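User: Last request for today: this protein with 6-O-phosphono-beta-D-fructofuranose, please.
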Amino acid sequence: MTSLLRQLHASGQAIWLDFLDRQFLAEGGLRKLALHDGVTGVTSNPSIFEKAMGHGDAYDPGFRAALAQGDIGAQDLYESQAIEDIRAAAADLRPVYERLNGRDGYVSMEVSPYISNDTGATIAEAQRLWHRIGVPNLMIKVPGNSAGVPAVRQLTADGVNVNITLLFAIEAYQAVAEAYMAGLEARLAKGDPIDRIASVASFFVSRIDARIDKTIDARLAAGDREAEALTALRGKVAIANAKLAYAWYQEMIESKRWRNLAAQGAMPQRLLWASTGVKDPRFPDTLYVDTLIGPDTINTMPPQTMAAFRDHGTLAQTLAADLIGAQNVLAEVDRLGLDLAEVTASLVSDGVNQFAQATDALLGTVAAKRAEIVGDTINTMTATLPEALRQKVEVRLEMMRKEAWPRRLWEGDPSLWTGKGEDHWLGWLAAGQERQVDPDALVRLREHAQTNTNAVLLGMGGSSLGPEVLARILGNAPSHPRLHVLDTTDPAQITEVARSIDLEKTLFIVSSKSGSTMEPALLRSYFFALSGRQGDQFIAVTDPGSDLEKIAMNDRFAQIFSGDPTIGGRYSVLSVFGMVPAAVIGRDVMALYAAASPMVLSCGGDVPPQENPGLWLGAIIGEAATAGRDKLTIVASARLEPLGAWLEQLLAESTGKNGHGIVPVDLEPLGDPASYGDDRLFVHFALTSDVDAEQEAKLNMLEAAGQPIVRISLAQPERITQEFFRWEIATAIAGAIIGINPFDQPDVEAAKVAARQLVAAYETAGTLEPETPVAEDENFAIFALQDESAPDDTVIAMLRRHFAALEPGNYAGFLAYLERNASDAAALAMMRVAVRDARRVATVAGFGPRFLHSTGQAYKGGPNSGVFLVITRDPDPDLAIPGHKASFGTVQLAQARGDAAVLAQRGRRVLRLHLKKSGGGLEALQAAIAAAL
Ligand SMILES: O=P(O)(O)OC[C@H]1O[C@](O)(CO)[C@@H](O)[C@@H]1O
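Assistant: Here's the final one, the structure of the complex with 6-O-phosphono-beta-D-fructofuranose:
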């Protein structure tokens, strides 16, 4: 016997399937439905794909096959599989399409719900899918909201078959019918054919009842006086609404305008009943089929509804019947104040949101599958967090998902931060995708650099720290120069580098985005003179139009590499600022990008926060910071230790402002649980081949003691590039949580100005302004910045008072304007441990002026919890700067004094201690601090 469904089909209403699934297609499910039940079309939507792809492992072989062609992001991976299904379904229905001469046999695929409010993006995406899928019996689904209507017109004019979805109100349907006609007319005006353009208007049914009936039930429960009238409307409104839409359709096809189009071959835009699955168990499960049967319409049914109708549907031409009854129902709706207009309007936006949520879930699963499949190419990360913090992170991740943070970050939406131009600073996102460099130029540079034994990079902050990490972690390739990074004015350090290089076989890289930073300018003068003004031994990396660019041209530098002015220094390592020095030391820059790529894809705008390693980390560090765990303590296995200096700048300069932010703690030796308060977040970086059992054991103890620990593991050193990208994303996100602009550095300039003034005064007077110590002994002289000395103060008494000021949650800073070498670093580390263990506070250390262009921002602009000891000494021997009265030593001292003065002006607790020549230097200071604690 012919199935009821087939009879329905024969009655003039098309039956489409509102479902799609790979296994179902593979088993020939659709072909069977077409054959036995007369099914002539398929609709899909994000929820349908979420059900298909988001659960189980039916798509795993497909995911694997797609990724075997090359790594792609979650959205592309999803799309590759969805398109495969759509094409398979279209192939199954192709015979129907051919037999009916294009009148039916269509499969619909929906544009991303994320762009539903953007007409231009909707048009572009619909076009892209249309061409990519490339089959004639395809329909692209576009929402029928206000942004969708003009898209329908345009797409129709362009010859794309459109299925307009999420129609609830008759007026909305009328608008899309009008857009369809206008699109056809536009084609005619261009002389294009219109006889093969198909369109359907998907009018949603059951969702209206679900919403209205809920209101009715609430009113009934509240004892509404109109109980009887309200009850009579249950399950009636959606059908009445659909009937009236159909009545309008019938009028429309009789209109002169339509008859004109029909005369030229136009196919009517059929009404398609969608959302026909019955939600209320009190209604018959075939309700929205039985009542909506009429010619030239479509009913798209989920499999259960199809099965129900096949089993016990009622076949009669109901759609055009009892129109008066339908009008009465809507009049009653009006009279009873049920506000259908409000219901249908909110159903549109709810529908878009629902599809967006389904897409989030779907992309989350696809991203997780991708991570599993390409897993061993991605650095791993785990986090053990105290329960309260873990919960805050969860809540934040869900909020980020709802508010679409990944997409908004990649789209450059400044409202993620303070809304003050942050969108102009996001060039680093593209830089991570190798879009900022000229690969051929870097290959040539790599070859050219080989003639040198040494390279010296002159730059500060973002222009030096990334290159230093690359040079120290990756090292120079065989027969390529060794890179020295000079980011100082310390005479001894400069002399040491000058001594260790063969001048004639050294390539100098002058690196400065602004091209006007004082230290690289002075260092350039010094080495340019030293080289005998050999411009061909110099290259510049700088932003276009900078002073440095002009000087480099003037002095005939061998090459100038231009940066991207939309990338701030600390986010520049994956741009020319990191890649030029990488090429110089013989590294294959494209291989470095290839190593970064899996992380870049994992952190994409299409990866929901829960699966997005950058957003996840950003949520952890942002939430930790706002909960008082603002001392991000970096622990690294030996080979990765250099990363900390780069990370310090990124975190501190980005987040430490307006009294908020993260204070990075680098190179503080690990202690016992008792050494730490509850203001820490530990981050451990380890190279898998570089296991340090003692470090791991200490971390395990901290973890057992309830300290939060994030562990990041790299299988290969080249994958450090992944951490650059992950941390840039995480920092930007943490900045959004903290509520600051992560791309400016408002407090750095003050210290620079103060130092410049002191140097300028020196250039005229030939001496720095004199100052008087407030306490002094044979080793040290102390200069107080605040009025905090007592008349008979000793150095020890002042140091004692200084460290006694440290309260829980504070940190001690050692700001050393000294040569940065292993012994100074070790001495500072010992002092830090002594202070940490005595006062249970975090400690930081920086060499000046290097840290001024890095953590200095947070010390001045971040939380006022630092207690700083600025350490200076007279340089011996000093080093002259060509063309200047001031020596490097004078500049360094001026920088220290300027820095200390600005810290004091900002209300920071600060003491300056000058190491006297006669004293024992840092060893003596260590002893003094031990005595003072
Ligand atoms: O690359 P430039 O312009 O020389 O700047 C160096 C560093 O100085 C700073 O501007 C801070 O002074 C950093 O943000 C930057 O990375």
